[in-house]
UniProtKB/TrEMBL annotation:
Family (UniProt): Belongs to the sulfur carrier protein TusA family.
Name of protein: Recombinase
Signal peptide location: none
InterPro entries per UniProt: TusA-like, TusA-like_sf
Species this chain originates from: Halomonas heilongjiangensis
Domain UPF0033, chain residue ranges per copy: 9-33
Gene3D superfamilies attached to this UniProt entry: TusA-like domain
């Protein structure tokens, strides 16, 4: 993937649900529209991130598996409309 993320989170070696929790913390530090790359080795993170994105204002323009490492690119969404 040739996208340059604004921040990178290395969550390799962390068990479920830590990769997702750490990603939520990292997203909180970003401005809307910025891109976070997450690297995780927990196989359950594939489903966890998919569910999280479906229930949030964020987008996941790409995700891929490279060997035993899962890579997720998450674009922070804007504040939800009230």
């Amino acid at each position: 993937m040739a996208v340059q993320p604004d921040d990178v989170l290395d969550a390799r070696g962390l068990p479920c649900p830590l990769p997702l929790l750490k990603a939520k913390q990292a997203l909180a530090r970003l401005a809307p529209g910025q891109l976070l790359e997450v690297m995780a080795t927990d196989a359950g993170s594939w489903r966890d991130f998919e569910t999280f994105i479906a229930q949030s204002v964020h987008e996941m323009p790409a995700r891929e598996e490279r060997g035993d490492v899962f890579h997720y690119w998450i674009r922070k969404g804007g504040e939800p409309a009230s």
